[in-house]
Write a structure and sequence with these properties.
alpha/beta, Stationary-phase Survival Protein Sure Homolog, Chain: A, 7 helices, 11 strands, globular
Length: 254
């Protein structure tokens, strides 16, 4: 079993190191990740310039590959032959939850999507460390242990075709986590605001700011599961077709 570990936070991110360490307990691991932070980058594929790759050393002394490409590139390159055949792609551990509409923005999730597009199972792991005190560094150890449990189950059972898993883990000890719940995508509530400023030369520029997003705490969703202290496992598909809307649109006269 050969597992590719990647992320969108950069190759030296502590969540990636913790995830890779746990994956090495069950499989051969290759780490291939961006050389910088690509958070909220969405599904990017680089086509208009060459991609650079260099080998680097992680904080635990293990080796990894870093690329100047996006998270999706860091999956595409290995699957196209940069390394030996990959059996599973795991992405993360993202420092904040990726719930609801976050999946369309998340480089963590879209890296797993890139795997599925290439016919390889993909799993995205995110930790709800936004719930911890701000002055305490995040501990990814418990989340990495939970990730290993899920990966072991995926290896044993397999995943349905064209399906990836979006896993969100509460910021709790392993013992405090209430269990695992299969969920649907919930509703994320964004509170973005436009901040317009003027630079020293008198030219306007803009920040997208605002308060942190919230979510609708509904039972059966990723939002609700996290709020109750459960690990949320949401199966996602790449077919975004709204089949109910098709029936309505077929009645239109063009």
């Amino acid at each position: 079993m050969h597992i590719l570990v990647t992320n969108d936070d950069g190759v030296q991110a502590p969540g990636l190191v913790a995830l890779a360490q746990e994956m090495r307990k069950i499989a051969t691991v290759t780490v291939f990740a961006p050389d910088r932070n690509w958070s909220a980058s969405g599904h990017v594929k680089t086509l208009e310039r060459p991609l650079r790759v260099h080998e680097t050393t992680l904080v635990d002394g293990s080796s990894a590959f870093a690329s100047d490409g996006a998270p999706s590139d860091c999956v595409a390159l290995p699957l196209l032959g940069f390394v030996e055949k990959v059996d599973l792609v795991v992405s993360g551990i993202n420092p904040f939850s990726n719930i609801g509409h976050d999946i369309t923005y998340s480089g963590t999730v879209t890296a797993a999507m890139e795997a599925v597009i290439s016919g390889v199972p993909g799993i995205a792991f995110s930790l709800a460390s936004q719930d911890k005190p701000a002055n305490i560094p995040a501990d990814y150890g418990p989340a990495a242990q939970i990730a290993r449990v899920i990966v072991e189950r995926v290896i044993a059972e397999g995943l349905p075709k064209d399906t990836l898993l979006n896993v969100n883990i509460p910021y709790l000890s392993v013992e405090a986590v209430k269990g695992f719940v299969i969920t649907r995508q919930g509703l994320r509530v964004y509170r973005d605001a436009l901040d317009k400023r003027v630079d020293p030369r008198g030219r306007p520029y803009y920040w997208i700011g605002g308060e942190a997003p919230t979510g609708v705490n509904e039972e059966g969703t990723d939002v609700g599961a996290l709020a109750e202290g459960y690990v949320s496992i949401t199966p996602l598909q790449l077919d975004l077709t709204n089949y109910k809307a098709m029936d309505t649109l077929k009645k239109w006269v063009f």
